[in-house]
């Protein structure tokens, strides 16, 4: 099943509980939380206290994306705040296997993230250790960017790699996905579709999530 995963970064933080309620009523069961440190990426966002506050307002799966240096220092804090899955950048981890192990020790799913220019081939020996892979389809740091087209070829290569290894790990994509390109993204092989401004900046986020879920389901039926 393909999941539409609204990104909280694009929500109205003054009315965050209401924003979350809208997308949940539209059928979203996973929420994406971007954590940025102003060093690994040129932006600052949320920390564990915000994740903890969000956890109190929803039973949804909280997918925490650490766009930070030295992510191993903060895994326990975000897990304790209520994260269900935590992903870390390949580019930020000197000892990726160790960091993934730390995440799993917290009893949450461990994900690996690749920036657009990082080839999926770097993951060939670590796929069995990860629970999912997130491919950035924009350069990380800010919302509202356009999807980089060549990332869909990376999705197709990664999909082939997991098929060859007979792995069930989801492929997540983040950046520039909207109603017009969603079907193509799903057909390429993506399972978790992170979308921010396309949902939260629409006139009716609830209806937009419903529409995206229908498009994704139809595209996935063709893919299968």
Order of helices and strands: EHEHEHEHEEHEHEHH
Low-confidence stretches: none
Helix coverage percent of residues? 25-40%
Q: How does the helix and strand content classify structurally?
A: alpha/beta
The number of domains: 1
Note the gap between the termini. Answer: 11 Å
CATH A-level architecture: Alpha-Beta Barrel
Largest beta-sheet characterization: 8 strands, parallel
> Using only CA atoms, what is the Rg?
16 Å
Shape: globular
According to CATH, what is the topology? TIM Barrel
Report mean pLDDT, rounded to a whole number: 95
* CATH H-tier superfamily: Aldolase class I
Strand count: 8
Textual characterization of the structure:
The protein is built from eight helices and eight strands. By secondary structure, it is α/β, with parallel strands linked by helices. The protein has a single domain (3-223), classed as TIM Barrel (Alpha-Beta Barrel). It has an eight-stranded parallel sheet. Strand 3 (61-67), helix 3 and strand 4 (85-89) form a beta-alpha-beta unit. Helix 2 (48-57) runs parallel beside helix 3 (75-81). The longest helix has 19 residues, at 205-223. The N and C termini lie close together (11 Å).
